[in-house]
Structure formats: C-alpha cells, structure tokens
Task: structure prediction
Amino acid sequence: MTRSRAATRAAPDRPPATAGRDGPAPRAPAFAWTPQGWACGGVPVAELAGRFGTPLYCYGLERLIGNYAAVARAFPAPAVVCYSVKANPNLALLAELAWAGAGFDVVSGGELRRVLRVAGTAARTVFAGVGKTPEELRQAVDAGLLMLNVESPGELDQVLELARGATSAARVPVALRVNPDVDARTHRHVTTGRRENKFGLDRAALPAAFEALLRSAGARLAGLHAHIGSQVESARPFAEAVERLLEIVQDARRAGHAPEWVNAGGGFAVAYDGRPVPALEEYAAAILPPLRAENLKPVLEVGRAIAADAGALVTRVLYRKEHGGRRILITDAGMTDLLRPALYGAWHRIWPAHQPPDGPGPLAAYDVAGPICESSDYFAEERELPPVAAGDLLVVFDAGAYGMSMASQYNSHPRAAEVLVSEGTPRLIRRRETFEDLVRAEEDAIGG
Ligand code: LLP
Result:
C-alpha cells in the first residue's frame, strides 16, 4: 500500500486548540486544557482512561447538544434539522439529541430501529440510502416517516407497490433524491452529487417518477432531496444544488404535484486542521432564502457538524521506537478504531493528554501508528509533537463523527468503549467489547 496520504502534509505548528466555527453564539469546547491535563467536559482524560481503559471514545454532551442547537438556530422552524445517525449512532447520543428536539436522517433499517428505540416515533425522520432492501422498504413504509427518500426508478416501483397495500390511511410521503450534478469540491470519496456518482435519480428519470406518483393512491410527492457531499468547505455548492432543486420543484408543480419540502442534505464542514470553514449562517444564507421565496420547508441532514468536535479518541502509546530516521509511536488504537486517516488521508489533531497546548517545546516529528497489520494504519506521519514516551496518552481530536461508527473488529480487535461526560460526570455509553463479543455469531458452527 502506498503512503500517499494527505496526512503526510506538514502539521501546522500550533497547539490543538479546539478550533471552532461558532458563529454568533460561542459554545464551550468539549475538550479543554486544565491543570490535570486535557479534559473532556471537565474530567481529565487520564482519569477517564484509568477508569474505562483505552482505546476510549470520549464525548462532551454539552458540546454535542450545543452543536445541534447552533444548527437549529441557523435553520429555524419550519426547517427540520435531522441528525445523520451514520455519523455516530450510539443510542445514548441519539436519545440526548431526540430530547433536544432533533429529527434524524437514517440510511438503513438498523439506523431506523435505533431511532425508534430512543424516540418512539419516526415522524421527524427521513430515510435515505441508495440500496434499500425490500425488507427495509417495508419497514420504512410502515414507520410513519417524515419522508422516504427514493433514489432509483426501481426503488420507486417497489415503494408504490408497498404503498398500495399499506394499512395506514396516510399516503406514504416520498421525496425524490435527485442527482443535481453539482461539484461539492471535496474529497472524491465523500462527494455524492456529481452525475457520475451512484446517488440519486438522474433528471431524465424524473418525468416518469412524477407521473407514477401522480397515479398512486398510496404515496405522494412530499419533497425533493439532494445531498452533494460531506465536509463541503464552501456554501456555494449548496446554493447551486438548491437552484437545481427549485427548477425541479417547478417541474413537479407543472406535473401536478405540490411538494412541501426541500431536503438540502448535509455536509457542513468542520475545522479539523484549523483552517476556517464557513459559519453555519453562511450555509443557511445560501439555502434558506430561495426556499422561503417558494414557500418550501427545508430539511437538513447534519452529521459531522454536530458530532465531530464533541468527541475524541483517547489512546495509549504502547511503544516508542526509531528506525529509518523516523520516530514512531505505536498506539493501542488503530485504523480499526478510527479509519478516517487510513481511508481518506484525513487529518486529525493529536496531542499528548498531559501536555499543555503551548508546550513544552521543542516539538519533534513523530509518526503515530496503530497496532493493525496494514501499512496504512497510521493516524499521522511526521507530526510535530512535544515529547512523548511509551505509556503516555494521546488525544485524537474531532473524532466524534465517523469514528466509532466506522470502527471494525479487524485483526480480532474488540471495539473500544465510549463514554459520555456531562457536567463533570462520565457515563459509560458503550462497554468495551470482549472476546466473547467477537466470536458470538460464530460459535454455533463449532458446537459447544
Ligand atoms: N445525508 C446523506 C444522504 C449522507 O449521505 C450524509 C453523509 C449526510 C447527510 C451527512 O453528512 P455530514 O453532515 O456528516 O457531512 N465517512 C466519511 C463521511 C461520509 C459521509 C456519508 N454521508 C468521513 O469520515 O468523512
């Protein structure tokens, strides 16, 4: 495997101050320096690591909910802000977000069941996903969703068939996910709105979809949907996508529909490396006015901007060694815990838990590598850090989104524990997996 990851780019020489893009109402960061070291929600991560072990995902509840509230402020009612469950599906986090008033964006039957488990209703849930199975569609039709996002002609046929037999008096609210052919100018693995991407319906397929929905007694066109990508570092592609969606709304109206909703998707960026990203209000300024002018209600699907900076991965340095002219730290967490650096070359701030943000110097370049038998298992290469020794804890910041949710058990590594800290009180929200968890689904085959 080549080592061409963007993670190799020079680290900025600055402390891991939890950068923000707070807009008008600043939120306290989830992680802050204290005399006892870096702390999550006021509790030193060293204390959390001592109590719950490592690798450990730590989340600050006030930051998580503050982030949701900031999005909800930027996109006030009648907009519905749906938290993208895929970013972090932990039940405790979902329950807190439901309590705070969030809707949900789900992409599988499993995510839908998580939402139903904590919220008891799917009335503020939208269901996207390019490959829903017949079983998932049945679940979706029966769930009482805000909208079922349909992404292909074949899927629409199935939904209309299921809706025909649906017991509910209400017609199934369908949103057509269109491929707006807008370039979100983000990493190619997280861009979704180009014509060549697999997502959504091609515009050429829309007239037939409008026609089929018009004839259906069991389903109705409730809205239109587009999601252009993730970590979209400019508001302009959203304005372009909304423009395309409004053209399509006009087409739908001409065809005899009265869609109420436009779902502009998600993808608001996070300042991982400290470079500024647009304020939520800038995204809102690109999305909301054209929708208001057309009397359409917005839906947003927001994952990263709510969960990322609320969480960090805490890992212990197992070994420190030097070879090939490199200083290498081997940590107990790896790509099985946080895949983003290996998969996308993603850059996460890393800092020793016991070192203040401004020192002590001198900084030296370290490779931070995991224990997994893959040469892409690096969190960072040639990263400038203060002195680090075996046994030290490292904090990998901004890992609350697409961290634990993409974790695997590769190399038979049980997945990490997760802890949620609120007002200085930690709560274990996912216990560390055990060997028994690893083999449970296989044991029947070997008997005993
Ligand atoms: N809506 C849809 C239809 C999506 O596919 C996604 C993300 C979102 C909303 C939420 O996007 P967000 O606001 O979180 O950017 N694993 C990658 C990100 C993949 C995103 C997939 N879809 C990463 O770690 O960067």
